[in-house]
Inverse folding.
């Protein structure tokens, strides 16, 4: 790859396996369309909301599955429905607020109304007026409701799917991923601390790669290297589900400072000292059960983050092949003490669109997307730890990324 | 409101903008009292009374850590800022603290690109006087467009 050669625009995935990814996967409209069809609308569960966001009857939240806008709503019998935000009549995306409370949904265009389960209720002038006009006699309201999605609610977290044959949620995650999921979401009451929303100029797969790439945190992020939060010499585990699409990166912080993991590492700052140590006033929590950080990538829609006392759900919404929206829902728990609440807020300064650590990632993704666009036929190299795919206990590995693309290649048939 | 106070507040605002736009970031913490609050928060969170911010610094020491971060540790593509700040409205003065607000527009210019609207919103400020100099005891930057164009590195 180091030799100069003419650029070609052949879309070929030259090598078998998933240790080399051609750059057109991250730029191409047709690939993007197929991803919408097979991945976001395929037999996968996508994260849409938390039950804590819609505690009462009629509470709703607008969310997204891939490019499709959906409404997550709690109805009169307490059940949670997810319906597509698109009027069955002429297609208007009628709900335009992030959240609220409604007795029904009414499309502003022609006043068609739907109940909280998405059933069509009212059609103005259904039988015409003065004996003229109206719907044909065979029109049946029950055939024209909103698109109703499959819904899985697991310990306060709501997932949905457009696909008729989506497996059970627990089967979708598999036992290992379920264990890490339930480490955070064990049924206790969640408290939403707020949101951060950013548009990142890169393909949506790049953020999953970033959070399956256990090699980079100890190199790119000065704060992680200096304070031992995530670096090469941490005790670690990097594990997947049986299909290799989901992953958890697990690490246990150490004391940081100078050592084998910092030798020759440009981002390590030997003389850096915080003026205000409260940024890293970490209190170990019993539910961590050892690791100080677990970053779980649940393919294709969400990253679950616990890094020290900061907990967040990071939703991934593709916006064309070269952009995605990254929506952070920052969390605490209902039984947090005032001090713990304060700690979670303070440590959130490391994350999100202005975070001391996370800015590195979203900026790097912009550089990667730009670089890839220069030569679509070139490939990324993903061979740390070999070309095989297996769980590992070292951070010096790209096995989780290879895992995701093995599954991706199968689903996409490319 | 005393005209001297009014002019002094305007001077504080213009000096702040000159400091930040001229990239003299090391001097930025000096616009704040030792115990202070600097927040960049979306209108969505702010209006809903949610505590989360994009950035929330609670002391001058934290502001200094941010300066070190933006200059030394946070990887980001280079950019310049240009603030346009409206005339501050002084809302009141109690116990030696002045409450004021002003609208702002921040334009961002990246290399190889045109200038763009980066962040718009309002400052909600509490101003105290320390050794004869006005300083921010609290500066809350409430931004309208909740979707951040990738990242915020430098002070608003």
């Amino acid at each position: 790859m180091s030799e100069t050669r003419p650029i070609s625009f052949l879309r070929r995935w030259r090598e078998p396996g998933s240790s080399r990814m051609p750059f057109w996967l991250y730029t191409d409209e047709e690939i993007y369309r197929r991803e919408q069809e097979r991945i976001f609308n395929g037999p996968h569960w996508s994260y849409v909301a938390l039950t804590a966001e819609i505690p009462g009857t009629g509470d709703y939240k607008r969310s997204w599955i891939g490019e499709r806008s959906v409404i997550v709503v709690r109805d009169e019998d307490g059940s949670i429905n997810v319906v597509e935000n698109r009027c069955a009549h002429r297609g208007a995306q009628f709900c335009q607020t992030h959240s609220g409370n409604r007795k029904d949904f009414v499309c502003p265009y022609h006043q068609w109304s739907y109940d909280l389960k998405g059933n069509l209720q009212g059609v103005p002038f259904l039988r015409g007026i003065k004996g003229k006009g109206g719907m044909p006699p065979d029109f049946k309201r029950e055939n024209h409701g909103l698109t109703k999605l499959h819904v899985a609610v697991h310990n306060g977290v709501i997932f949905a799917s457009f696909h008729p044959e989506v497996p059970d949620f627990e089967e979708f995650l598999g036992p290992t991923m379920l264990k890490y999921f339930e480490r955070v979401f064990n049924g206790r009451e969640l408290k939403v601390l707020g949101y951060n929303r950013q548009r990142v100029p890169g393909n949506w797969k790049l953020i999953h790669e970033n959070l399956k790439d256990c090699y980079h945190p100890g190199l790119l992020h000065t704060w992680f290297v200096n304070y031992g939060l995530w670096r090469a010499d941490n005790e670690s585990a990097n594990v997947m589900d049986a299909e290799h699409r989901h992953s958890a990166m697990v690490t246990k912080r150490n004391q940081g400072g100078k050592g084998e993991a910092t030798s020759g590492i440009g981002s390590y700052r030997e003389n850096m000292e915080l003026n205000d140590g409260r940024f890293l006033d970490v209190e170990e929590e019993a539910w961590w059960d050892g690791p100080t950080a677990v970053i779980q990538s649940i393919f294709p829609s969400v990253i679950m983050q616990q890094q020290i006392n900061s907990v967040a759900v990071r939703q991934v919404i593709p916006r064309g092949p070269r952009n995605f929206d990254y929506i952070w829902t920052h969390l605490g728990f209902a039984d947090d003490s005032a001090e713990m609440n304060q700690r979670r807020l303070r440590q959130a300064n490391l994350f999100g669109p202005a975070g001391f650590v996370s800015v590195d990632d979203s900026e790097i993704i912009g550089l990667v997307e730009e670089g890839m666009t220069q030569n679509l036929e070139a490939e990324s190299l993903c061979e740390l730890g070999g070309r095989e795919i297996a769980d590992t206990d070292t951070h010096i590995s790209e096995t989780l990324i290879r895992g995701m693309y093995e599954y991706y290649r199968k689903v996409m048939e490319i | 409101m005393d005209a001297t106070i009014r002019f002094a507040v305007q001077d504080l605002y213009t000096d702040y903008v000159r400091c930040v736009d001229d990239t003299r970031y090391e001097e930025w913490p000096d616009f704040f009292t030792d115990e202070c609050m600097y927040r960049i928060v979306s209108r969505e969170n702010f209006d809903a009374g949610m505590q989360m911010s994009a950035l929330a610094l609670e002391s001058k020491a934290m502001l200094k850590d941010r300066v070190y971060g933006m200059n030394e540790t946070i990887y980001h593509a280079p950019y310049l800022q240009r603030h346009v700040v409206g005339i501050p409205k002084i809302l009141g003065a109690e116990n030696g603290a002045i409450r004021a607000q002003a609208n702002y527009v921040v334009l961002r210019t990246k290399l190889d690109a045109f200038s763009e609207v980066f962040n718009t919103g309002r400052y909600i400020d509490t101003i105290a006087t320390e050794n004869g100099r006005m300083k921010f005891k609290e500066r809350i930057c409430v931004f309208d467009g909740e979707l951040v164009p990738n990242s915020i590195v430098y002070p608003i």
